[in-house]
Batch of 3 targets.
Target 1
Amino acid sequence: MPNYQGVWSLSTQFQNTTGWPSPPSIALFGIGSDAATYSTVIEKVNMATASNAVDFGDLTQGRYRGGALGSATRAVFGGGNADLSAGDGNNESDVMDYVTIATSGNATDFGNLTQKRQALAGLSNSTRGVFCGGYSGSKFNIMDYITIGSTGNATDFGDLINARLAVAACASTTRGLIGGGDAASITNEIDYITIGSTGNGTDFGDLTVSKQDRAGLSSSVRGIFAGGGGGGNSNVIDYVTIASTGNASDFGDLTATKTRMGAASNSITGIFAGGNDGSKSNVVESITIASTGNSTDHGDLLAAKQYLAGCSGSHGGI
């Protein structure tokens, strides 16, 4: 196959002249907790073929348990539990930083969330990103939004049905889903929003299990929620059809009972990275979103990490 430097589309996965896949095959994972607790490292995973992660660059602030979202060109990492040596004395962070997905390098400041918080999730379409839920002394029903192609502070989007932390999120081009988490208790609820407008969440249906710290990813048709903790770790992978409403169905199982993973996808492949299966994990596993079945081993992260946030430039919202 010839090389097509700088040329890419969602339907093809050409190799560039460096041998690394073009943006539709790149997943990024950051805001994780490694052996040093707070990680600045962003890792890059090739979704097109099983392989180990490589270093992409560093965040502006070491933190974990934040959210991530992406457009076709940019990835944005928001919030988290911050490294006190790099912050202002408040554990929770309101920092958003961004990278250009096609070019490895360190992150740049994007702006600030409306509220410092950790245990939030991100979702997006091609232009707008939404950060959902979280915790800073209390559970939040907050949803913030940004215009991914610009920089600046987040703006209020609306409220989740219930204040909750440790949610998972995914999106189609029009609709965002927010599932699971810890509300008054650990929940299986799924909210949905229309990304292009603003407003409060609406009931979508229920996941098959009530868990927090699940991982969410999607194609334009299907939303996937996997793993999670609270009352014991889970290996369950659920799926929903994003354009409809209703309860989730069983998709298959992870390679281990696991919580606190990062997740990212393109239109074909879903990637789950790191997490905790009794200890911090470096395992990367993958699924084919359009089918059902168990996940398979995809490779390894650079280090064992939990509480990761993942995103890509070719997920279901693009």
Target 2
Amino acid sequence: MASELIPLNEWARRRYPTKPPHINTLRRWAFEGKIFPKPEKHGRSYYVQEHARYVNDFNDPAFLEAMRGSSSPQ
């Protein structure tokens, strides 16, 4: 079953509770494909799966592990 989509700023508050990134940073990450699984844009807003992760380097072992885990049913 697919995860429910949540607004990008809500995802940031959950992922980084003490100091979430600025909304402009979040939008840039979404636009540049640095959030996996990729956020969906609905109108002017981005929505992401709750378990999404920030990925700076697509060769990073953490990203490769997330890719392997994304294909398994939840």
Target 3
Amino acid sequence: MPLDISLVSPAELALLLGSFFVTFVVLGQRVRRRKSVYYGGGVLAVITALTAFFIIPDQRLGLGLLIAIGIIIWGGRLDESRRLSPWKQFAWQAAAVLAAVAFGWTITRVTNIFGPGVILLPWGSVLAAAWLLGIMNALNLLDGVDGAAGSVSVAAFATLALISLLPSTQDHATLLLSLNGLGVMLAFLIWNWSPARVYLGTVGSWFVGLYIGMVAIIGGGKIATTLLVLAIPLVDVILVIIQRLRDRRAPWQGDRERHVHFRLLKSGLSPRKISLLLGLMSLVSGLAGVLLQTKQKLLLFAFVALGMIVLVIGILYEKSTSRSE
């Protein structure tokens, strides 16, 4: 399906370049003042949120975004300095999400995959809360290899920008919010590329996940496409939880073995190759989501999930074979 670029003007390109330049310069200044790796999530959150507040057409939604980001910065900083327990982390995440939902961030309808039209959702607030929490945790858990979370986030914002240009969509707010996030994350990715000098940290991974989820919601919802872009981290979370339950371990207990990026790292791939692989796979899935209908998107998501399962089984088999030898 061809894109309608009538929404794109010098102003949109200026937003993209401006977000990139400001983020790159501010992070660069912070890096030069420190000898150790810098947690730049707060910088990303502030720059993105302040710009987004003036983009979002509904001031109530904009205020909800700012309050949610404030909660994330507060709770995320506590985790970065004190290493909060999983339950306390979840409490802070839930507080941010509930604040967003209370100010109108909800999913009121989804495309009907069985026929024309849309399906109205009576429990849109509950679905939105689950959606935002899921994306936040998926990005948080993906942030274990330099460049991985940044690459996938760039693919997500690029895809959301493209889908806003479809003739059937033509959503200016989504375009601007996506370009804002894209510029910020491209600048971050330069500093986060292996060997990283800037990390997302708890604040950054929570914020980026929340913001991606919000951009997918606004303007009618682009849930299915975002599911495709983030299929790898989302399916990875589900698979890891299943494995932990199978081994009778707490599903929220962290480790550096089961997640797909750690498995790829142990298989011999470098952090740069892993980031490129995950980013390209997410971008290809996103581009497919732009071109496909909703039912086809869900089928592709299932195919990606199956591919992830095969990949994990293959790595485990290779690992067991090498041990037996």
